[in-house]
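Blinded run. Sample ID left blank on purpose so nobody reads anything into the name before looking at the predicted structure. Input follows.
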Amino acid sequence: MHIVIAPDSFKGCLTAEAVCEAIARGVRKALPSASVVLIPMADGGEGTLDSLLASGGRRVCVRVAGPLGEPVDAAYGVLDGGVAVIELAEASGLGLVPEERRDPLRATTYGTGELIRAALDDGCRDFILAVGGSATNDGGAGMLQALGLRLLDEDGLPIGPGGGELGRVAAIDASGFDPRIAESRFVLASDVTNPLVGPQGATRVFGPQKGASPETIERLERGMMHWADAIERHAGVRLHDMPGAGAAGGIGGAFLAFFPAEFRRGIDVVVERTPLREALRGADLVITGEGRIDSQTASGKTPMGVAQEAMRAGVPAVAIAGSVGPGIEALYPHGLRAVFSLVNGPMTLDEALRNAAPLLEGAAEQIVRAVLAGRKEA
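Blinded prediction complete.
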């Protein structure tokens, strides 16, 4: 029996590689003779860099500014063929900021710009940007500043970092913007379609999870609107209601306005650069999963993308999740046959997180035993 294991990470708990290994142990408990292929996956959020580098390439470590300006050690990847992978969460991610210090008024994407600059210095001109998991709501302003764009206030002085400064932008000076940007190609791996501003925009939808209070939300929204107006005057690009501009606290809009960039569904970018399609040939079962599976998974999350590839290959796919929410029936037409929770009894969230690996192992064992029982009955 040939089984492909292709899950995302379980956020805040296990990497995609660790999830693969736990599931594989469960598969082998049920069927020691199974042929198992492990393919850690991602969909443009945290873990995308690791997933893509697993297929070949090199990791380059750089000291950059973190979300609150403090130095952090971040990395970018250079895939075989010279394509650079920049994962925003490496330099500007929410996971870099303790919950009590989260402040989108101050958080900046400057470090992400430093990663891009380092990759340009490395000779890279093709980029994949994984933009999920940001701690920021600065509209990509910090990233642009790191690459030479000057954002000036009414006195002609540079504005400070963070979304709280966007309302002070009076002029945009692109004379020092890195000319290598225009020579490059940027693919944004993201499933976010939110516009820059408004009820479904970057601030109102994602601001609360980054530490923004209701009062802060209003201030950030006013600043983002001002920023969108300034970009429209400078670049002639209206980002206000443009799909995808609200990705990662508005960094999507910065790419659309100032870079030769295009959006692609994150899971599609990852699938194309991993051995998933090859592994599916002749497979009997695919096991995927992530921390939570619900109606939002159908918007292009890893389990949906893996199931779609499995369906094209004629292979049944099942998923394991830390928690299962409402709306999973939306996934069935896309190739996902069943969804299982790893929780096997009453337990707290802390217990589930602490024991995620053995719980995954147990769930995978039961899935394979059920498949084997079905085959015997058939």
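Unblinding after everyone has recorded impressions. Residues 33 and 85 are 37 Å apart (CA to CA).
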